[in-house]
Amino acid sequence: MQIIIRNKAFSFSTIFSFVIKPIKGLNDFLNRNEILFLPARYIYLIKNIIFEEFAKAFIMSNQIRVFSLETGNFKADGGTMFGVVPKVMWERIYPADENNFCPCACRSLLVVTGDRTILIDTGIGDKLDPDYAKFHYLFGDDNLLKSLKQVGFAPEDITDVILTHLHFDHCGGTTNFDAQGNSQIVFSNADIWVSKSQWNWAMNPNRREKAAYLKENLDPLARSARLKLVENPFFLTPDVELRFYDGHTKGLMSVFINLGNRRLVFAGDLLPAIPYIRLSFTAAYDISPLTSIEEKEVFLKELLDNDDILFMQHDINAEACTLKMTPKGIRENEILKVNEIFEI
Ligand SMILES: [Zn+2]
To answer: How far apart are CA 300 and CA 303, in angstroms?
Structure first.
């Protein structure tokens, strides 16, 4: 086996003696015959052993790796979450607190493939105005940059940021305030991918969505040469496909990630939590619920037929799941964590 570090080949025995041998639980690794592409940063991380789980995911996936990143939680009113669906139907599946608020995660996904380190969505970020924040009941200690660091990456490592759409809870972490209070992009080496229709929609917002498009989130993107506006569905890499949907907002992008033998699908707000697998469950936030239902129907059928894994950004209890057909339609099957995917 060869190991390639910054385009130089090293024999496996060299790497084994100095890097891999001190790590527990890597026996499987020794029996495999793939070529392993190992940037120098990972050698450093592996040396520090903290990343046993990371190393395992890396090896099992044989080049493409994915990490679920918690960016912090918020609460949303149960009525806005489930629109016309009566509370007696949704609360059994997704309980609300005594004030009718439902806890929501805000998950991002990191995809490392070849020389690309791709971050999908960036959460709310750290610069939410307190008056605005008080309607969203932020809770928990998670934060995007902290979660990135935990899996061994710094903001400068990110080569691409995909923003599924520009609502505040999906793009806020792309920017932060500098010492002068100016909003600036955190990921200095990244191209930032947004659909052109979502960008135009956010630049001329309608009255319903206007409050979700924050100037401090969008202005730095508007000024940046790294903003890439995409007009049609496309493959960002051979393993990372972006598709467009219009029910939640115009030009929402969902991301289909080919892990080798399975696909992991980052639905974004097309399907943000388990209850929405039921076709009639749509959020009151959706600009076009009937379009959402039609889009989900096609989307879920494809995922079921392919035995894909659905990644859910806002479900407080479930990171990901597989699907099954039941007499009532498609439903969640096995609830998974992303780091378990490599073991199925
Ligand atoms: Zn949204």
So the answer is: 5
